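Reply to dn_fold:

You asked what the input looked like. This is it:
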Amino acid sequence: MNQKVLFIGGTGTISASCVSRALDSGWDVTLLNRGSRADSVPEGVKAITADINDEDGVRAALAGQNFDCVADFIAFTPEQVKRDIRLFNGAAGQYIFISSASAYQKPASGWVVTESTPLANQYWQYSRDKIACEDALMAEYRESGFPVTIVRPSHTYDHRSVPVSIHGSKGSWQVIARILAGKPVLVHGDGLSLWTFTHASDFAKAFAGLLGNVHAVGEAVHITSDEKITWNQAYEAIGRALGKKVDMLHVSSEMLAAFRPELTGNLLGDKANSVVFDNSKIKRLVPGFTATVRFDQGVRDTLDHVLSHKEYQREDPEFDAWCEMIAEKYRAFVRP
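and this is what came back:
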């Protein structure tokens, strides 16, 4: 009989690829979510429509069921993971919490990040909440043996959205539209900080190797590509895929955050820092794992998909106007 895994969420950027990989690996896969993306659920996957925040409703929907593994992709606060502990302690052989590599110390004390790098982020509440979730889960592991595995993704993307450093509330399409129109694109700092992009299909390979893995219980591990490129190289790769030369305007991260405070966490607490990941641990836990999708290859495939699917081309006039405002100030003071 196949082992059973429950995905809470399961249709997002990272989780959709993990669902498909688990299914291909022979797992009996069930999704629990609100059903808003039912059309993206692969054939052969069972679906339970429920809101995970309705604890009593979920308990009723799962009554009598046990799972070899439960993976929650949409828990962001300590209260939510404590709810999961109540729901699944004794009903799951393993519980996987999706944390974030942004939880690692910012500013970093060293440029190579391992799982023993301290967790501290003074700039981003999202990251501090993830740290608090990890603390609560590890405390429960030590106290009651709750079988937690913590996974820390970094900048992971799939075919539905092009990864960029700065975008508005409607996603990255407006940045692509600016490149296609020959408009300047904002790049934080000098564009020379190192970054790692991980394709969701690569992440899923490692993730599937953690499912039911006894050696992963009680452990925290990040999953990223080994490729390291600068932000300038990332935008150049996007431009080549589009057949356009990208007009990059380099603006300090502090200035960008000052003009758009919601960027503070995403930039100062994450992307403005050079980050190189040591993936030795995930390779020990999942022998044979290696990320194989190079950024220029993955982003070309993503652009092909986005350009052929209008539903992923969400215009963002407000963000476009903000970019023009910053570009005007840049031209006035830096490029007269």
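The first helix runs from residue 15 to 24.
Hope that clears it up.
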